[in-house]
Amino acid sequence: MEIVVFGAGSLGSLLGGLLAREHEVTLVGRDPHVRTVAESGLVLSNRVADSVNPDATTDGRGLDADVAVVTVKSYDTEQAARTLETGSFDAVLSLQNGLGNEERLAAHLDCPVLAGTATYGARLVDPGHVECTGVGEIVLGPTEGGASTLADHVAEAFDDAGIRTRVAGDMPRRLWEKLAVNAGINPVTALARVRNGALDGGPIGGVARSAARETARTARAEGVELSDDAALEALETVIETTAENRSSMRQDIETGRRTEVDAVSGAVVDRAADHGLDVPTNETLAGLVRGWERSQGLREESYQ
Ligand SMILES: NC(=O)C1=CN([C@@H]2O[C@H](COP(=O)(O)OP(=O)(O)OC[C@H]3O[C@@H](n4cnc5c(N)ncnc54)[C@H](OP(=O)(O)O)[C@@H]3O)[C@@H](O)[C@H]2O)C=CC1
Ligand SMILES: CC(C)(CO)C(=O)C(=O)O
């Protein structure tokens, strides 16, 4: 299978590297990482160790492949979609966190857009070197839910490359469940500078649970059946299984990078407002993280 991985940073380089073991892969990313991969190959380390030689480019325009896997941060999805629009793909798969990525991709692309969640942990250590910090799984399926032979075909390609992958017919619920987990863990660990496991109790855990419950209620207002109990169970499970993790939002804040707060807490606030729902915990967390981003000059616009 010919696969383009658009956004070869941490997650994209790990999954693209694994896929390169079985398929023709082109990574689309930035120099010096791309230049190093093109010249010397890509090293995978830690929980998965290998050396592979995918193609790599900084120019994602005009590419042609069976599947494009999108792994840019959610705030880059629009520009990624406009670039992918210049190419030709049988399917596009988003493995990003946050809400709205699939809709933004579908607005620009004629091919089917599959939704996916990734619980692998990845960190780009150096140009040409990505480490797998946690072996998880990929769950993918049609964005709107239901069965899909295309999803089966893409999942088979991932599985053939040794990536634990499942097809699901309820991606709308799974995306909201992952959003509840991220809304609970990411901004709280980022602002308190604690590892995910610190949320397993006490007042800080209560903030995370409140954010997750608000997300579940918003999901139901959107017509997605996600109970408070299911959201809280997913939150507790991830807190336990990623206890030693620094969440991606904490890593972004500690490295002075823009976060995905708009696609996480901000998305809950926006969707809740569409239904006249108050989500004070998510609103507060979004305001605090956005305030930090503005203090760092990472947000041009005013409060919003
Ligand atoms: N890392 C992880 O363990 C996990 C990440 N995720 C999710 O996956 C997504 C990606 O996360 P992560 O890999 O950590 O993010 P990274 O920032 O490490 O990777 C994204 C990469 O895409 C690059 N990029 C963006 N636009 C373009 C473009 N037009 N052309 C070429 N390169 C481009 C970025 O470069 P630049 O920054 O210079 O623009 C960056 O190198 C996020 O939604 C995240 O929440 C989900 C589960 C686990
Ligand atoms: C699941 C979790 C919270 C793991 O850290 C994650 O997806 C992230 O950090 O963005």
Q: Could you please describe the fold and organization of this structure?
A:
With 304 residues, the protein is α/β, with parallel strands linked by helices. The chain has two domains: 2-167, 3-Layer(aba) Sandwich (Rossmann fold); 171-295, N-(1-d-carboxylethyl)-l-norvaline Dehydrogenase, domain 2 (Orthogonal Bundle). It has eleven helices and twelve strands. The strands form two sheets. An eight-stranded mixed sheet has the order 5-2-1-6-7-8-11-12, with helices on both faces. The chain binds NADPH dihydro-nicotinamide-adenine-dinucleotide phosphate and ketopantoate. Residues 97, 181-182, 185-186, 196, 238, 242, 245, 247-248 line the site of ketopantoate.
CATH superfamily of the largest domain: NAD(P)-binding Rossmann-like Domain
- Rough outline: globular
Distance between the termini: 42 Å
Strand proportion, as a percent range, falls in: 15-25%
Low-confidence stretches: none
Oligomer: single chain
Q: For this structure, what is the CATH class of the largest domain?
A: Alpha Beta
Reading the helices and strands in chain order gives: EHEHEEEEHEHEEEEHEHHHHHH
Task: Count structural domains.
Answer: 2
Cα Rg: 18 Å
Mean pLDDT equals: 96
Q: Helix content range of the residues, please?
A: 40-55%
| CATH-derived architecture of the largest domain | 3-Layer(aba) Sandwich
The largest β sheet comes out as:
8 strands, mixed
Catalytic activity: (R)-pantoate + NADP(+) = 2-dehydropantoate + NADPH + H(+); (R)-pantoate + NAD(+) = 2-dehydropantoate + NADH + H(+)
Protein name: 2-dehydropantoate 2-reductase
Family: Belongs to the ketopantoate reductase family.
EC number: 1.1.1.169
